[in-house]
Amino acid sequence: MCGIVGYVGGEDAAEFLIDGLRRLEYRGYDSAGVAIFGDADIAITRSVGRIQSLADRLGTPPPGTLGLGHTRWATHGPATEENAHPHIGGDGEVVLVHNGVIENYQALKDGLIEKGYQFTSATDSEVIAHLIAEGLAQTPPTDDQPHARYVTAVQWAIGQLRGTYGLAVVFRDKPGFLIAARFGSPLVIGVGRGEYFVASDASPIAGRTDRIVYLADHQLAVLTADGFSVLHRDSGKVRVNIQPLEAESGEVSLNGYEHYMLKEIYEQPDALRNAMRGRLNDQDATAVFGGLNLTPQQLRSVERIILTGCGTSWHSALVGEYMIEELARIPVCVEYASELRYRNPPIENNTLVFGITQSGETADTLAALNETKRKGHRTLAICNVVGSSIAQASDGGVYLHAGPEIGVASTKAFTSQCCVLAMLALYFGRTRHTSFETGERIIEDLRRLPAMIEQALTCDAEVRKVAEKYQSASNVLYLGRRYNFPTALEGALKLKEISYIHAEGYPAAEMKHGPIALVDADTPSVFIMPRGTTYDKVLSNMEEVKARGGPVIAIASSEDTEIRKIADDVITIPEAPEFLQPIITVVPLQLLSYHIAVLRGCDVDKPRNLAKSVTVE
Ligand code: AGP
User: Fold this and answer.
1) In what order do the strands lie in the sheet with 396-399?
2) Is 494 a catalytic residue?
3) Ligand 1 atom with the shortest distance to the CA of 311
4) Which of 13, 28, 113, 189 has the maximal Cβ count within 10 Å?
5) How far is the CA of 360 from the centre of ligand 1 (A)?
6) What 3 state SS string does 127-162 have?
7) In degrees, to the nearest 5, what angle opens at C-alpha 462 toward C-alphas 456 and 464?
8) How far is the CA of 495 from the centre of ligand 1 (A)?
9) How close is the Cα of 378 to the center of ligand 1, in Å?
10) Which DSSP letter does residue 206 get?
11) What ligand 1 atom has the least distance to the C-alpha of 613?
């Protein structure tokens, strides 16, 4: 899941390319490169690591009004300069950047090597560059249509590919000309005045133009400074919809915070206000959603709900399962998106399938939704990025309106997803057995959420002290029950992904069936135990850990004085109704992982081996 950019127009391309790559760096930061088409030739600069080292290597950029850029998340071949993009095809007549995975690259590569093509990298992407060069070699020039030969060569080449691609390509013999194409990986075109921008998502384009085209699968865009056209890979021109660009997709400043993750943790109260704005209907004591596109009959006939997603989004799906089953009494299945597609479960009619995703680009979730849709089931998205692939592919959905989430470790998206799932539970519940009074109480509780999070955030200093105490741990256990079991999983994931400490989340009662063997003086256990149905049970689980010398950190209600007699460290949070507790109890867990990662000198916003949106399967 790399980030690609391209530019053709009247200005020097370098400034947009570098700035655009900075805005896409959350998609991958193993290596980066640019190609700038000057008067005479194409200057390629590549470097390992972050965009800053590329900018340093580039120094004063060469002039040129046509260019490509790429930031890499390695799928094939290590993070080296040879494997960095742009890649060259033939003997330099083709220059290409690619985001995606080509599954049949080895077979194609063998064929090209037989034809005498020389490979300089271990990547799958270089195959595409040589394929296009081969396409050019096979396609004689036509005087009347100067572009045709190049378009034909690209169409021929991508016709051989099995896998996913978002790519942009320029040609040594064709200044001022760029072709972009997509299948499975996101790609957008920014429509300027005498200039055009290509990017993996809208963020590089914001502030450059307010008109955008979201390319669909199998579409190619042919761009020059004078204009652009969009073609289908196998057939001719297609009409495209130039849409206004959402302002919020722009440059995101740190606003004085040291890291995006900390900023996004503190943005949660506002993110929840945005998620609820205009969606709580006091008159009917229910929630309203403008984009679900469900008729009252369809709503009433829903007999089962599948919630699917990956990583943190899968954790919020687990919270949603508890909420919807409890409040709406509709059976819910939670599926790892990467498994759902291949597990091929029997899905009854009248089943709604929700794909939960912050980025809207996660390939596993997109594939799972497409598979269930292909089988005739209604697919809906709970998503944070307007116009994203999953939003486009679904029959309807709910936007989170949480604003851009840049930190790779998802925080405000989790709490916003849980908030939307609570409103969906109310929405479905009020079409069934949830009374008006209960609906009113739920709305009241939801409206108190932002203030409850603001109060929970006051534990920051307390959490920092606990982080200092346990920053050298090599294993940590997270334990909770009912609604707080998914929160335990989420807390463990946050610590793993940004501090690289091994951590596991479990239902607290599961400990005695094995994991308790891990308990010793160096393995702290974090118990998520606000007051609730299973409080006493969790307390006994905590005693079992204490009895084996395990240090215990408790996330507990501020009114809970008993807990201090047992736990080694207590972090207090405000009381909340049980079904909303994950939205509150996760806050100290987010802060704990953040402070431990900072104390360990980790790159909090861009942790190793990860990327913000996983656009490859
Ligand atoms: C969470 O912190 C991670 N960034 C990751 O697990 C993420 O939740 C997962 O890749 C799903 O992403 P999505 O919500 O954008 O689909």
Assistant:
1) 332-336, 304-309, 351-357, 378-383, 396-399
2) no
3) 6
4) 13
5) 10
6) HHHHHHHHHHHHCCCCCCCCCHHHHHHHHHHHHCCC
7) 110
8) 14
9) 23
10) T
11) 15
Point out the ligand 1 atom lying closest to the alpha carbon of residue 413: 14
70 strand-pairing partners: 4, 33
Tell me the C-alpha to C-alpha distance, in Å, between residue 157 and each of 151, 164, 283: 10, 13, 58
Task: Give the residue range(s) of CATH 3.40.50.10490 domains in the chain.
Answer: 260-599
Burial of 349 (0-12, 13-18, 19+ CB in 10 A): exposed
562-578 pLDDT per residue, tens? 899 999 999 999 999 99
Closest CA to ligand 1's atom 16: 357
Q: Which of 358, 394, 489 to mutate to test the pocket of ligand 1 (most atoms within 8 A of CB)?
A: 358
What dihedral do alpha carbons 369, 370, 372, 377 form, nearest 10°?
A: 90
pTM score > 0.90 for this model? no
pLDDT at position 251: 56
Question: From the alpha carbon of 614, which atom of ligand 1 is closest?
Answer: 10
Q: 405 CA distance to ligand 1 centroid (A)?
A: 11
Domain with CATH 3.60.20.10 in the chain: 3-246
Measured between its terminal Cα atoms, the distance across the chain in Å is 10
At the topology level of CATH, where does 3-246 sit?
Answer: Glutamine Phosphoribosylpyrophosphate, subunit 1, domain 1 (3.60.20)
**Residue 261 banded pLDDT, cuts 50, 70, 90:** very high
At position 260, the amino acid (one-letter code) is: Y
Sign of CA dihedral 73, 76, 82, 85: negative
Nearest-CA residue for atom 6 of ligand 1:
311
Q: Is 469 a residue of the active site?
A: no
Q: If you average pLDDT over residues 213-234, what whole number do you get?
A: 94
Specify whether the CB–CB gap between 66 and 37 falls below 8 A. yes
**CB of 527 closer than 8 Å to CB of 552:** yes
DSSP classification of residue 512: G
Task: Examine the pLDDT at 170 and tell me if it is beyond 90.
Answer: yes
Question: Which residue shows structure tokens 């290509």?
Answer: 198
From 263, 412, 496, 612, the catalytic residue: 612
Q: Which residues line ligand 1 (CB under 6 A)?
A: 309-313, 357-359, 362, 365, 408-410, 497, 613-614
**Mean pLDDT across 483-509:** 98
CB atoms within 10 A of CB 103: 13
Q: Tell whether domain 260-599 is in CATH 3.40.50.10490.
A: yes
Annotated catalytic residue within 2, 383, 419, 602 = 2
454 residue type, one letter:
E
Number of H helices, E strands in the chain: 18, 26
For residue 511, the CA-to-ligand 1 centroid distance in Å is: 27
Distance 389 CA to ligand 1 centre (A): 15
Is-contact 519 525, C-beta < 8 A?
A: yes
> Which of 29, 265, 313, 336 best tests ligand 1's pocket when mutated (most atoms within 8 Å of CB)?
313
